[in-house]
Design a protein that fits this description.
Elements (H helix, E strand, L loop, with lengths): L1 H9 L1 H10 L3 H29 L1 E5 L10 E4 L1 H24 L10 H17 L3 H20 L4 H32 L4 H10 L6 H16 L8 H7 L2 H30 L2 H24 L3 H16 L2 H4 L5 H36 L15 H14 L6 H15 L4 H25 L13 H16 L4 H8 L3 E2 L5
Parallel strand pairs: 1-3
Antiparallel strand pairs: 1-2
Length: 489
């Protein structure tokens, strides 16, 4: 059973990518919707197996590390696999109606969509540094192609900037991987940890970790390496923007977090942990401030992503040289933040796309009077904003509460100020959109009403972001299950 589930997660998305490459947009849409059902069932099946039996290592083709490619299937990995299935399915269903099928280059959306999905699953399950890189590059190249599908000069400029940032981040990451291999003779993360426990820390290992984390921070758009993100997320098609913000930037952070949690204590330092935390704090404040000043709706949401990403990097100072209970609180808080942000930001971008489609303009001031004509999408946008503002009972509130407890428990009270300031600034840019939409004008024209299915999808995602806070204990319990290791790597 496990064999078929693993094959379904890693290889069927590649098969669907090749299949849809041979079709036009309409036929690719039908094939994709069938594939979405399969992927959701496979993801749910693997999640149920891990929740029942615990995590395990899985060697592709029966070959274990170091000879074969080893996958790490644990509670965190399958949680992200299931999250990807939910968000990608929503974006795929939305794109099938939202994207114009008559433009010839739009037929490439479906192959890129499936390549992206395959890369995401490979990253969540990857157990060695090089195959994580392969998955990450598949994600980056697919994302660049999806941004370029806008077809306009601005979309092409944004995609080229995105590509250059991704390549530079990959170069830094690969330099770190080369150093790790030269010092430890293995690319398996578990293997590196095993050798660190048996031997002294080699000189230069800290530099290797720093290079990898720096490259991944660039791919995640951590301040001040964020300049490529707002143009790419803001100008892409709304379903693409939702995928980029909800899932793509999370993949590089996921790898950075895995590396820090496994190698941070022996290879990192307190100064490095605090520096990353300060950069995350700056991202929260600077990204939120710029979101308040943007004139275009999707740019507001894009700069909001810069701010929300900053919270994730508080993981570094809150898990270094602290008690096990505090570290666990920080890890749980960041995990809930990733999940709630993915659901809320996907809902926000899809709702914003509906509002732009209704008004015919991307500007915030064009929303005048739209509250009377498109209240459903506006309500979805606001519900997603509740999670970003960290109001109860949302998943964002549960995440920030755990991070607050970890900050106080570790004696690092200054991160509490960042959490409070970020919530207030989030309220400022969300209510700014609502203020514009509730203004009335005698010159307001009748708005275009998008299909009702386009409005239902962001509403479901927003409700899930709100409801996450009510089931957070059940979600986190899967990640606390025992891990069955199959010998020393």
């Amino acid at each position: 059973m496990t064999l078929w589930l693993m094959a379904g997660l890693l290889f069927t998305p590649l098969a669907w990518a090749v299949l849809t490459l041979l079709m036009n947009f309409a036929w690719g849409r039908l094939v994709t919707w069938g594939g979405i059902v399969v992927q959701v069932l496979v993801s749910l099946g693997l999640w149920l197996i891990v929740s029942r039996d615990g995590g395990f290592y899985y060697g592709l083709g029966g070959w274990q590390a170091p000879l074969g490619i080893e996958l790490r299937v644990d509670g965190l990995a399958v949680t992200f696999v299931l999250l990807t299935a939910v968000v990608a399915s929503a974006c795929g269903l939305h794109a099938g109606v939202y994207i114009d099928p008559d433009k010839p280059w739009h037929r490439y959306f479906w192959p890129l969509f499936w390549f992206l999905w395959a890369g995401l699953n490979a990253v969540w399950l990857g157990g060695d540094l090089f195959n994580l890189y392969v998955g990450l590059e598949l994600i980056s190249l697919s994302a660049v192609g999806l941004v370029a599908l806008g077809g306009k000069a601005g979309a092409l400029r944004a995609s080229i900037r995105y590509l250059l940032a991704a390549l530079l981040g990959s170069l830094a990451y690969l330099l770190g991987v080369a150093l790790i291999y030269g010092q430890f003779g293995t690319l398996s993360i578990a293997g590196v940890v095993f050798r660190l426990e048996e031997h002294a820390v080699p000189a230069g290992s800290g530099l290797a970790l720093a290079l990898m984390v720096t490259g991944l921070a660039l791919k995640t758009a951590l301040f001040p390496l964020h300049r490529w993100l707002p143009p790419a997320h803001g100008i892409a098609k709304s379903p693409v923007s939702a995928l980029l913000s909800a899932l793509v930037v999370k993949a590089s952070f996921y790898i950075a977090a895995r590396l820090w949690l496994e190698l941070g204590e022996p290879l990192g330092s307190l100064a490095a942990a605090q520096l990353v935390g300060l950069l995350g704090s700056a991202a929260v404040v600077w990204g939120s401030w710029l979101a308040c000043r943007q004139l275009e709706l999707k740019q507001v949401v894009a700069y909001s992503s810069v701010a929300q990403i900053g919270y994730l990097f508080l993981l570094f100072p809150l898990t270094y040289s602290v008690s096990e209970s505090v570290s666990l609180q920080a890890q749980q808080g960041v995990t809930l933040q990733v999940i709630s942000h993915a659901l809320a930001k996907a809902a926000m971008f899809l709702a914003a796309g509906n509002l732009i489609l209704a008004t015919g303009s991307a500007r915030v001031d064009a929303l005048t009077g739209v509250s009377r004509f498109l209240p459903f999408s506006l309500f979805s946008f606001g519900l997603a904003g509740v999670s970003l503002m960290s109001l109860p009972p949302s998943g964002g509130f549960a995440a920030k509460w755990l991070l607050l407890q970890a900050s106080l428990g570790s004696g690092q009270w200054w991160w509490l100020l960042v959490l409070l300031a970020g919530g207030l600034l989030s309220a400022a840019y969300v209510f700014r959109i609502y203020r514009a939409s509730f203004l009335e004008s005698l010159e307001t024209d009748e708005f275009y009403h998008p299909p009702r299915s386009l409005e239902v999808i962001p509403m479901v995602l927003a409700l899930m972001a709100i409801g996450l806070g009510l089931v957070s204990a059940e979600v986190l319990s899967v990640m606390a299950l025992p891990f069955e290791e199959e010998g020393s790597p």
